[in-house]
Design a protein that fits this description.
The mean pLDDT is 85. This protein has a seven-stranded mixed beta sheet, with helices on both faces. Strands 2-1-3-4 form a four-stranded mixed beta sheet, with helices on one face. It is elongated, with a radius of gyration of 35 Å. It starts with a helix and ends with a helix. It has 531 residues and is an alpha/beta fold. It has four domains: 101 residues, no CATH class; 95 residues, Glutaredoxin (3-Layer(aba) Sandwich); 204 residues, no CATH class; 36 residues. The protein is 41% helix and 17% strand.
Length: 531
Amino acid sequence: MRERLSLRGERVSEDIGIALLVVGAVAVISGALLYAIVAELRVWALVLVGVGAISLLVGAYLSREQVVRIMSTRQGRYGVNTLVMIVAFTVILALVNIVSAAANARVDLTANQGFTLATQTQEVLRNLDQPVEAYGFFTPDDEAAAATEQLLREYDLLSGNFTYEIVDPETDPAKASRFNIDQNGVVVFASRDRVTQTRQISEQEFTSNLLLATGTQLRTVCFLTGHGEHSILSTTDIGMSRAKEAMERELYVVRDFGFASAGQVPDECSVVIVAGPDRDLVEEEGRVDRDLLGNYLARGGNVLFLLSEDTPDSWLELLFLAGIAAGGGTIVDPASYAQPDITTPTIRADAYLPDHPITAPMIDRSLVTFFPLVTRVAPLPPEVMQGSALTVYPLAFTTDRSWLERDESSLFEPRFDADQDTRGPLSIASAVEFPADPRFPEDTAGRIVAIGNSAFATNQFINSVGNLDLMMNSVNWLAEQEGLIGVRARLNVPRILTLTQRQANWILYSSVGVFPAFMILVAGWTWWRRR
């Protein structure tokens, strides 16, 4: 009787041991996978691995004789080998995950790098020298919460001084009250002593608010009005609303102003843009626009002049004082033009000045620009510039087959007239650097860029080939933001895969039928061979 009870007890003990071995193996494998895949549950994963390890040890002890018997058979050895391989694979997977988490590296394979922050934003985050916290206030059912968290996570990865949190204002009213949040969908950026808010979910808006929270003043680009210039508010083909948006993407504040109302160039203007004036500078009692612009330049101002073939003489005279000869006709270039209009010269990469910050990136990236009805903008001859403190750079040139057509009536069928036309190559853009005026010793040197065309920067043409790059490179150079030259902020472009019905059917049937059927056939063939 005692022997029977003893044998029964040993069998129960062995059965319990086997069960513990199975449970322990499952727990260890599950815990390792959980640790490798779900970072938020790693503590519980370690607990699960620990419990599994204890179960394995206890189970091995209780069923030690049966384990020895099983391992002495061929099937037992195969089973042990399989178990070892599974454990080894799980451990390797966990180690790879740990190493990859410690040395995080990602590759953005989208065509426009749509999942990568713009270089401007990356530079801001790398130079962030104080803690900034971002709070996104969203209820769980708000669809914008996921997009906000994804974007903020990109910021968090680039700076140890940046942290973020998505807050439900309904379950955490105290935090919402702290920032005076009374509505859903607000993102707050808070530093030690500044707080900013925005409801727009975009990289440009987030980076702007991040800079404002740290006390950084954004540079302002001011478009002059009152002389028939292109409007930054107009969305028509001849407007410049897209140029405005491009500058805002590069973290500029963009506004317009007029001398009639402002009386001077506003103090906050880092760059003034004169975009295609078709009326003369005003000279009337109490207001002389040329003097107002001249005073701004004398104090170290920066101006971008976008001209045309019929820019009024008063503007050309102002540029003459800056060392630039502009106007005089329309450039025709039969060797390089945008089809079918011979009066729209194209400037290829090898026609830019190679060693200037504005144009060097154009060469590096092999960018082409085109200019409908462009006029000449060139440095004055050396004999005229002798003794001048100005430094003038010709930036881009037409081909040697081009000419400056002075007879506007012949533009429909232009022909070179050696008696009155000027043979190329011709400069169509120039940059000027000049020292500070001694009357204003506290101010810095100024800069001018003049381009013989304004149409290239209008809504109709600015996003064509390299036109946007030339425009923004010029603005960045004038604003002394050379580090941003040649780098454009990313645009979110929807990419849609269009399928025919036949292609859609193939994807459907192959995914739910062909491949599973293939795997079943392989499994059946393998079973048949081994039976």
